[in-house]
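Progress report, Aim 2. The chain analyzed during this reporting quarter is listed below.
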Amino acid sequence: MAPRVLGGVALLERAVDYLAGVLHEVPVAALTRPTPCAGWDLRALLAHLDDSVAVLGEAVGGRIGLAAQAQPEADPTRSLRDRSRRLLGAWNAAVDVDPVAVFGAEVPRCVVVGTGALEIAVHGWDIARSSGQHRPLPTALADDLLPLVALLVADEDRPGRFEAPIALPPGASAPDRLLGFLGRDPR
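Predicted structure tokens for the chain:
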């Protein structure tokens, strides 16, 4: 599969831009609301995504190990927004990071960055949904993430990391197909 399909910094940038827009609209009162991620409230989801962004930031150094967890902040949305922007700057500046050692296994940079883009975009949608925003995933972003998600999420990931796919009507949009494949009901 071509690196363009698997991802790259441009794909990560589009995911971070989407997330940043969502984070600007999260009211503090929403932090205790449930999310599409079973058993998590919005504060826990923000902490999870902040940790994921920290790990993706560690990958800029050429390896992923056991990164220190992000420290809880008084304003978790601002913390995540700021960390995501720093992450994007770091990946834009990284020129010789390929492959990335992920717990000792060599993984192409485009796969690491594409996986991060998927995580950021889909959890961005989760955050929007949980905070009462009508902010769908951009169609072009979902179009570019769909081939990647099919490579990254296997039947063995269900149940556990992902719920069963949601059946959607024929002709469903790319964002709906992406979310449905990951067990999220986009309706």
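The first helix runs from residue 3 to 6. Helices lie at 3-6, 9-23, 42-59, 76-93, 109-130, 139-152, 174-181. These observations will guide the mutagenesis work planned for the next reporting period.
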